[in-house]
Amino acid sequence: MSQPSLINSSQPSTTKLPEQDFSLDLIAGDASPRKYYRVVMGPKATTPARSLIAVDAPSSEKTPEFLHVRRLLEDAFLRVPALIAADAEAGFLLLEDLGDEVLLPVLSDHSAGAWYAMALNMAGLLAAIPSATTGLAAYDASKLQQELDLFRDWFVPKLLGVAWTNELERCFGDLSESLIDNAIRQPQVVVHRDFHSRNLMVVRNGELAVIDFQDAVMGPITYDPVSLLKDCYVHWPRQQQLAWLLDHKRLMTEQGRLEPVDDATFVVWFDLMGMQRHIKVLGIFARLFLRDGKPGYLNDLPLVLAYVLQVTAIYAPSMDSVADFQNLLTQQIVPVCQKQAWYRSVTLT
After folding, report:
1. With 80 as the cut, is the pLDDT of residue 8 above it?
2. Are residues 92 and 123 in the same domain?
């Protein structure tokens, strides 16, 4: 078919495409309301066939922010989809087609080390972007609390049907204060905010590209590493996680991207940052099922819950707020989880 009005709805700063026939096929999307289409431009006399990705996003999906962060990352030498055309007001993007291969299915015990070294190098490039030039919002206490509250609002009462009592509110408030304090005391750098194996694409020549970066903020330096190494979709032994993490820390320090900090402190930052993220994700996955009709994310809840339980077990002896939360979690929340159809026991090594 031929729809030049769609293809040519670009801002003056983007390239207008020639009017020509193309096919348009809906492809699998992500957790957002965005729709993705593969556009195959038919060959012409002097032009071979070309495949692109069209994105149709509602106003809630931060198209202007996507364009801003895409340029920021590209200028920092991160591999991102090339921009072909855009109409930010309409929520339309036309991007380079990076293919269909995300990092997750190519990971194995043999290959993970090399892939994660590459991915952590990308996180290091993000962290090296000068903060004064980013134009990004701060990942502040208010935003961190808003995310934690998804657990209170969606996971516990709506998915599990457990009443949110005054005792839970007090305990959760104390834990939230500890987790937020841990986050804001860290060096603040550019944070992708969803840096994991489904948002990293394996492209030509074994290169990694990053996608889904429109929510980037200035936030804690361990946020992206913990999103990657304690991935909600794949688990690695803790000893291996920490080896990768501390190699990353050493390189960041040597490159002047991180002021010297002892390993133990950095691991605490990492673990508690991960706890904040995973508590948030429990709420997000519950909301994706209940509000957005996406039941597939229920299958990922057991691993996310296991991450939370692992960190509570590690830090309960030294942190009262974690110990209190662990008690309520194991006594009131986990038993209800165990009765859910989605539940399975996950043992983390």
Report:
1. no
2. no
